[in-house]
Design a protein that fits this description.
Protein name: Glutamate dehydrogenase
Binding site for NAD(+): 195, 226
Strand order of the largest sheet: 10-9-8-7-11-12-13
Helix content: 40-55%
Active site: 111 (proton donor)
Keywords: NAD, Nucleotide-binding, Oxidoreductase
Order of helices and strands: HHEEEEHEHEHHEHEEHEHEEHEHHHH
Strand content: 15-25%
Binding site for substrate: 75, 99, 353
Bound molecules: 1,4-dihydronicotinamide adenine dinucleotide, 2-oxoglutaric acid
CATH topology of the domain at 192-345: Rossmann fold
Number of strands: 13
Radius of gyration: 20 Å
Shape: globular
Structural class: alpha/beta
């Protein structure tokens, strides 16, 4: 079926605002409430100097956006990427609010980003950038205020450096200022796998709803980092056949199924493209494969008006934030493709970050089994609530997810007397 599409914006901030408009059309909300939700409450922009290995000083630019803290402190990752923009960080903070809302966490949304390419920094430079960024935002964040975490190209080690810098500045051990830390300094069991694990729980639930068997269900995964690599492994362990995988350099495709362990080895020691020249496929072509499950797990705006009509997957699980534009959403909905939206599909990460923060505040730590059990329960309950509301209002799952979150944030703002 060919579906006509209109001109579209690829600005993530404008996209987030459009998504809010789509959801509030189904809700009776005063206009000023919508206006509040369409903008972050606070944004900090910083420029900070870092001494490089060659002795020169480089000035880096970074941002932290706090979207809405009516329900609790803001929460969300920090991204290190050369293409970071202020509008992207604002949008990511808005998506965090709706994500925390849909899985019922006592948080609002926050997000940070630094314009840099960690792949071109030495370990020492990366540590100095991480510590200097934390120093620059230290008065803006805090365990009761705004709690960062990992995102694209940031790692548990970076979280550890940032926690250390913050703790030294405040003169007290403060593990609750940041999550996604190494286990030895207050990280939670299960956090490293949580984003992918949560995503896989929702995929399995969607397969069941679509009466599709898990065994040999075919899957293509774009992005091979924390979210994508672990999602590929967990899907494969669940019985699915991973036929395509990619990273920033390109992808590989084998309709007979890929060997995930071999690809993981290649990723760590060479390039996934070394799997074999005859298997190489572009990132764009990967998205259009005829598969049961497509998992975008890299960056924004990969499914747009330009390619939505050619997407053949039955289920799209957005491990990445913002991979699908509103125009593409409309096309996919008309084609009957189920899109498990980012705010639900990748909410496992922030859910276990919440568990980490709670454990830090209690100074009492849970087993991995306890973490995973709580995660699964929360993900499935949230999936069912979104699915049922979407059915009731004949909307896509994203709109239903936003409706749930927006109602919750609006109720909190009203209860606090803001509106
Ligand atoms: N790490 C987490 O806990 C969470 C991550 N996410 C989202 O998941 C997505 C991926 O993040 P992580 O896996 O954490 O990052 P990561 O830094 O661990 O991995 C990113 C991966 O994407 C690949 N990549 C980069 N540019 C690409 C491109 N143009 N095409 C294909 N692949 C490309 C990289 O090669 C790498 O394999 C992002 O959208 C992030 O916001 C969402 C929720 C939580
Ligand atoms: O773990 C967290 O607090 C947030 C992770 C994140 O940045 C995201 O869900 O997009």
């Amino acid at each position: 079926m060919t579906v006509a599409v209109a001109e579209e914006t690829l600005n993530p901030y404008k996209i987030a605002q459009q998504q809010i408009d789509t959801a509030v059309a189904h809700l009776k909300l005063p206009e000023h409430v919508t206006q509040i939700l369409k903008h972050p409450m606070r944004v900090l922009s910083v420029n900070f100097p870092v001494r490089m290995d060659d002795g020169t000083v480089q000035v880096f630019e970074g941002y932290r956006s706090q979207h809405n803290d009516a329900i609790g402190p803001t929460k969300g990752g920090i991204r290190f990427h050369p293409d970071v923009t202020l509008d992207e960080v604002k949008a990511l903070s808005m998506w965090m609010s709706f994500k925390c809302g849909v899985v019922g966490l006592p948080y609002g949304g926050g997000k940070g980003g630094v314009i840099c390419d960690p792949r071109k920094l030495s370990k020492g430079e990366l540590e100095r950038v991480s510590r200097a960024f934390m120093e620059a935002i230290a008065d803006f964040v805090g365990p009761d205020k705004d709690i960062p975490a990992p995102d694209v190209y940031t790692t548990p080690q970076i979280m550890g450096w940032m926690m250390d810098t913050y703790s030294k500045m405040k003169g007290k051990y403060s593990p609750g200022v940041i999550t996604g830390k190494p286990l030895i300094i207050g990280g939670s069991k299960g956090r490293n796998e949580a984003t992918a694990q949560g995503c896989v729980y929702t995929i399995l639930a969607a397969l069941k709803d679509q009466h599709l068997p898990v065994q040999n269900a075919t899957a293509a995964v774009q992005g091979f980092g924390n979210a994508g690599r672990i999602a590929a492994r967990l899907l494969s362990e669940a019985g699915c056949k991973i036929v395509a995988i990619s990273d920033s350099r390109g992808g590989i495709y084998d309709p007979n199924g890929l060997d995930i362990d071999q690809i993981s080895n290649l990723k760590d020691n060479a390039s996934i493209l070394d799997y074999g020249e005859s298997f190489v496929i572009s990132n764009e072509a990967l998205l259009e494969l005829d598969v049961d499950i497509l998992v975008p797990a890299a960056l924004e705006n990969v499914i747009t008006a330009a390619n939505a009509d050619r997407i053949q997957a039955k289920i799209i699980a957005e491990a990445a934030n913002g991979p699908t534009t509103p125009e593409a959403d409309r096309v996919l909905f008309q084609k009957g493709i189920v899109v498990i939206p980012d705010v639900l599909a990748n909410a496992g990460g922030v859910t276990v970050s919440y568990f980490e923060w709670v454990q830090n505040l209690m100074n009492y730590y849970w087993s991995e089994a306890e973490v995973l059990e709580k995660l699964e329960t929360n993900m499935i309950q949230s999936y069912v609530a979104v699915r049922d509301l979407a059915k009731e209002h004949s909307t896509d799952l994203r709109t239903a997810a936003y409706m749930i979150s927006i109602k919750r944030i609006a109720a909190a703002m009203e209860a606090r007397g803001w509106v």
